[in-house]
Amino acid sequence: MRRLSYRYQRTLARPAEVEGVGFLTGAGVRLRFVPAAPDTGIVFVRTDLGPPAHVPAHIDHVTGTQRRTTLGCPPAQVELVEHVLASLAGLRIDNCYIELNAPEPPGLDGSARRFVEALRSSGTVLQPARRAVWSVERTVVIAQGGATLAIHPAKDDTFRISYFLDYGLQSPIGRQTHTQVITPEWFADEVASCRTFLLEPEAAELRQKGLGVRTTTSDLLVFGRRGPIGNRLRYANEPARHKVLDLVGDLALLGHDLCGHVVGYRSGHPLNAELVRTLRRDLAAACCTPRLAA
């Protein structure tokens, strides 16, 4: 990997708070974004545990990627972190404590919209420390079970994500794509409001496991044979846009900015995490390798 540039780090100007019901536990959840010092990174704080447990949002702390991204080990664990992380990364907020009184953030409508609204209302401040912006020097591809996830070298100073969603011809979710340049403005306007989605049999399976007992079809997108049940799409390709949102959140676990073009095909949290692990290894090698003078 090669370092392209630097930018100054950011944190919140003041705390921001969001409340809602957790998708998994069905419990009321209070989440509080709190400003943090330079080079702190993003850290979840389980305030319901004694003493409060700190769980850094870093790939080294990922313990689960099935249907969602999980950090830490019980009891100091936080599940479904990707929407919160996407909100912070999408707005380029680098240092923040996320206080939680539950093992998951509030589910809200299955998107990042209310998190983004809270963060934008708080405002941000520049900090004296710098944050490096990196690009791969060659295309990196991760593949598994017919799904692929790749990152291509930067051609300019932008970070772009494309997602190709394909659940097959018989799926009620049609084939669709979305490509998005990730900037704070574009993320907030084009991606943040796109909601979690699942198929009706998947929703029934989760309920049988005791998950999502207080979540209804009006809270997130559940697709039946004829499309969303009791809900309407915000965009024709909302599921593909939500996959871009998830990628922004999972890639934030690298702890560094990226430039280049990420392309996903049928990929999800497992491949997202594996790509971050690969980039982390490449980044460590780049930092340890001295550059020859010209």
The percentage helix is 10-25%
Strand order of the largest sheet: 2-3-9-4-5
End-to-end Cα distance, whole Å, is 18 Å
**For the CA atoms, what is the radius of gyration?**
19 Å
Give the integer mean of the pLDDT values.
94
| Number of DSSP helical runs | 6
Order of helices and strands: EEEEEEEEHEHEEEEEHEHEEHEEH
Q: Based on CA inertia axes, which overall geometry fits?
A: globular
- Beta percentage is 25-35%
Main sheet, how many strands, which sense, barrel? Answer: 5 strands, mixed
Total number of beta strands: 19
**Low-pLDDT residue spans:** none
Q: Structural class of the helix and strand makeup? A: alpha+beta
Please describe the structure with a list of short key phrases separated by commas or semicolons.
294 residues; alpha+beta; 5-stranded mixed beta sheet; 6 helices; globular
Question: Mind explaining what this structure looks like?
Answer:
- The protein is an alpha+beta fold and 294 residues long.
- Helices cover 24% and strands 35% of the residues.
- It has six helices and 19 strands.
- The protein has helices spanning 82-90, 113-122, 184-191, 200-208, 238-251, 269-288, and strands spanning 2-12, 16-21, 28-35, 42-46, 53-56, 62-64, 70-73, 76-78, 96-100, 124-135, 140-144, 147-152, 159-165, 176-181, 197-199, 221-224, 227-228, 257-258, 260-265.
- Strands 2-3-9-4-5 form a five-stranded mixed β-sheet. Strands 11-12-19-13-14 form a five-stranded mixed β-sheet, covered by helices on one side. Strands 1-10-18 form a three-stranded mixed β-sheet.
- Strand 11 (140-144) and strand 12 (147-152) form a beta hairpin.
- The protein is globular and about 50 Å long.
